[in-house]
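User: I'm putting together notes for a lab meeting next week and I want to include a structural view of one of the chains we've been expressing. I don't have a solved structure, so I'd like a prediction I can at least talk through. The sequence is below, exactly as it appears in our construct file.
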Amino acid sequence: MARPQIDRAEADAVLRELRRRTDEDDCENFHRYELDADHRLKNLFWADVDSRLDYASHGDVVVFDTTYRTNKYGAAFVPFLGLSRHRTPVIFGCGVLSDPSLDSYIWLLRTFMLSAAGQARPSGAGRVHVPGARRRDGSPPAFEERWRGFVAAHGAAAANRRWLDAMHAKRELWAAAFARDGFFLGMASDQRTECLATRLHAGLREGMSLRDMVAHADACARALRRDVAVLDAEADRSRVELATAHRGLEEHAARRFTPANFYLVREEIVAVDGFEVVKTVARGHPMFGKKVYVVGLKQRWGVFFHVECSGGRDVVKCSCRKMEREGLPCRHIFCVMIHNNSSRIPDCCVLRRLRRRGDTKAERIDEMKDLGRQVFDLASEDAREFKEIKVFFEGWLEERRTGLRRSGAIAAHVDTVTPVTKKTKLIEN
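Assistant: Thanks for the context. Below is the predicted structure for the 429-residue chain, given as structure tokens.
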């Protein structure tokens, strides 16, 4: 049964409003649309400037979730979502497809990427998760065995066989067996993505007009951004009660991570006591080479994990790959830190997108401490180098003090850049 076509007058009103937003409110508001052969609205995508900025901050993982039966035209509603630093949903843009064909989805994905063009995403490859596409297929060999059975049952028709062959050639893009170590921040499950879109879907209903659907999506995006602002303010005021025996590590984690991420990290710190370092292997230069720590379960001999630390470059990796999958340090890394009497989590294990707001000064201090520790260790071995470094720091401090005395006082830095200017600069960058 053919779906009802979107009313021309209603589509024209929505497009006029989207054009007005770009012309009058902010030139960085974005929308694109596609017409069918009868010049009726076929597909639509829109993203306001704040959603595009959210993508710049949190666009390393993107989820899109198609919903039907939410409007009087039966058009597919497709929001693009991500996770904020507080692990709450953020909206990067929304699409409406009156013709949910393969070509329409290709158009929608390309248009979304066009809206994101020029936005500097967080470090790491951006990944898109399509709910329902990733299942627990086990290992690649198990997937191939199940795939052969599926093809035998459904691949008799020539058209089906061509499509199945094309999907098999792209299996690494959609099959969980080939993407289990992908960076998805814990979102690679249908249940998690449905939770992300719950608030957005809650207000949708059959019989809703296109104009009402656009207004509802925009209102949800604004509400979600207000939630992030409230959580930022609460995080600035919050003081976490320490609850583990490893108070130094726990305290440092509480200072660096937002509360939502800190509680996940603390679970790993709590689990540390069940592990121990059973062997250490050094490779290369004593200071700048690598060290591999073999970490095992205390109560179950034979289960081992390998934590690799690269000296001088702040690089830590574990064979469990939790950091690569979820962006959070694992219990095995913490076990090595405790083994080395370290209470500072390396910067490589604290992703910027999961940190507290305004952690810039702390980041600089920690970075200077790391750099200084390496410089001082090397310089202390040679009297001439030690004197050169010491004279340099003394001269730098004296210059700073002299400059401050000449200015009369130490003035508090006042940020005079308006939010609008900041927004413009971010987009330009």
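A couple of points you could mention at the meeting. The two ends are 48 Å apart (CA to CA). The CA atoms of residues 370 and 395 lie 21 Å apart.

User: Perfect, that's what I needed.
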